[in-house]
Automatic annotation (TrEMBL):
KW Hydrolase (keyword) present: yes
UniProt keyword Glycoprotein present: yes
Taxonomy, superkingdom: Eukaryota
Coiled coil ranges: none
GO biological process, one term: DNA catabolic process
Protein name: Uncharacterized protein
Organism of origin: Amphilophus citrinellus
GO MF terms, alphabetically ordered: deoxyribonuclease I activity; DNA binding
InterPro entries according to UniProt: Deoxyribonuclease-1_AS (IPR018057), DNase_I (IPR016202), Endo/exonu/phosph_ase_sf (IPR036691)
PANTHER family (UniProt xref): DEOXYRIBONUCLEASE, DEOXYRIBONUCLEASE-1-LIKE 1
Record-level GO cellular component terms: nucleus
Keywords, sorted A to Z: Disulfide bond, Glycoprotein, Hydrolase, Nuclease, Signal
Amino acid sequence: VSSDSLGNSPSDLQKYVFIYRTDTVNMTGQHQYKSKESFVREPFVVRFQSQNTTIRDFILVPLHSEPSRAVLEINKLYDVFVEVSKKWNNKNVMFLGDFHASCAYVTRQDRKKIRLYTNSDFNWLIQDREDTTVTDLTSCAYDRIIVYGEPFLRAIKPFTAKVFKIDTEFKISRSQVVELSDHYPVEVVLKSSALFLQATPLLILMIIQSFLSAL
Ligand SMILES: *[C@@H]1O[C@H](CO)[C@@H](O)[C@H](O)[C@H]1NC(C)=O
Ligand SMILES: *[C@@H]1O[C@H](CO)[C@@H](O)[C@H](O)[C@H]1NC(C)=O
């Protein structure tokens, strides 16, 4: 599913595109956020439902920020959150994309101007120390994944939010990666609703407990 072409200049139009597996998720809604003052490329928001994840109903908000406006645009994602969570009566929202949320575009001091930082209900899953750029010349966590609230955080498989290093994963050279992009993708895994997977940690805990109480 794809947005229309977005941007201020006819020579630089971009689309948000979601590629998904129809046997894993159902797309149940789309919403093009409209505010030319807030974004150069306004988020194209998509709602998914799935029987296969512990989180059954969730909303994805993408952003490719304009670098020089990164602080303002990331801050405005809060308004997108308010609009779409009202529209679908659901606060399970994940933000993802190239926010330019690092290095010179978003400094430590800038964070107090960004509600997704000052409000601790927003969980930044890709950490500041990560490097989402391909070249060795920069080390910046431009690309991020953020989820709102405890329910979504609990639905994330622990420690799976990371940079997907295309070269090591697919055994291709750095120069081949650069032909694709100057950024690496970022990824995260949602917990499966398959019963035995969910039950395993609980089962282990219960065995330990009964072992301890037997002592
Ligand atoms: C998608 O929706 C159909 C119809 O409601 C349902 O049968 C199916 O289980 C859903 N798929 C997933 C992955 O949740
Ligand atoms: C999703 O869950 C259904 C049962 O709820 C199962 O039949 C199906 O194989 C699962 N799909 C995937 C891709 O795991």
